[in-house]
Design goal:
By secondary structure, this protein is α+β, with helices and mostly antiparallel strands. About 15% of the residues lie in helices and about 30% in strands. Helix 2 packs across helix 4. The mean pLDDT is about 95.
Length: about 200
């Protein structure tokens, strides 16, 4: 598996958000490799995006990681209970990132299911299977990601991204849950594809 180098992220945020689709996100946890395939992303560009935590270069203890060198994780907490995973993009000092909104499990599905639902993958209901990792909080719960994983480099364990098959059809649209962001509500900066029914049937490792 080819791990994406740090310079993959040192590019236009919208380009990175699209090209992350289909890639494999790997989380090494308790001696296991939890692997998922990224199916949905959103781009955030601080210099002009009112939906970004660091809009107009607003620098706070929470947003400090957004100003880091590209290719590190940015994990934050929303509503006091859900963690969200982002990847920092563009040159250091430019507060930009890609939110990982959704994925499908590929390896160690039982461990991911136990983190998410407290049961093995074979015990999931149809509803649970459909909504396994289709949201940023769900993804972080499944991969046991918290603020402790903030600011990790993404080109080495315990958290890294590997190239995967490029999706045949990518869709774009408005981002979700940013009703406060005025004109930025309408930016078509959400990218996703619909995985096939066979997705995740064959592991990586």
């Amino acid at each position: 598996m080819e791990i994406l180098p740090r310079d993959f992220y040192d590019r236009d945020t919208l380009t990175v958000a699209r090209e992350l689709l289909g890639c494999y996100l790997v989380r090494e946890w308790e001696g296991k490799k939890l692997a998922v395939r990224i199916t949905e992303t959103e781009a955030y560009i601080g210099r002009m995006d009112k939906a970004c935590h660091a809009y107009q270069y607003k620098r706070t203890p929470r947003t400090e990681t957004l100003f880091s060198k590209p290719g590190v994780s940015y994990v934050y907490l929303i509503y006091g209970m859900y963690h969200c995973l982002n990847f920092i993009t563009e040159p250091e000092g430019e507060p930009c990132g890609v939110l990982i909104r959704g994925a499908v499990p590929v390896d160690n599905k039982d461990s991911i299911a136990e983190n998410r639902f407290g049961c093995k993958a074979s015990q999931l209901t149809a509803y649970q299977k459909k909504h396994f990792l289709d949201g940023p909080g769900k993804l972080c719960k499944g991969l046991a990601l918290t603020r402790a994983e903030n600011a990790l480099p993404l080109d080495r364990p315990p958290l890294y991204v590997c190239r995967g098959p490029v999706p045949q059809e990518i869709q774009t649209g408005k981002r979700i849950g940013i009703d406060y962001a005025q004109e930025a509500i309408d930016f078509p900066w959400r990218f996703w594809f619909t995985p096939g029914t066979e997705e995740g049937e064959h592991g990586l490792f």
